[in-house]
Task: structure prediction
Amino acid sequence: MEEDTQHPGEPAAEHAVCTRCGVTAESGAPPPTWLCSVENGVRLYFCEGCARTHIRAIEGRLDSNWW
Ligand SMILES: [Zn+2]
Result:
């Protein structure tokens, strides 16, 4: 019986999910085009589209609550 679960050696955690639109990174790890922001000690990921849309707010170091 073959189960399609995690591959051995691959960390189960850290499946990057866009904080804004909820899209999941296909490879699990966030692509280089994604943006990573740390707010209150929590690591947030933003996909390429969301990062572009909100780049100014991110660069302004505003919490996503302000968007
Ligand atoms: Zn997104």
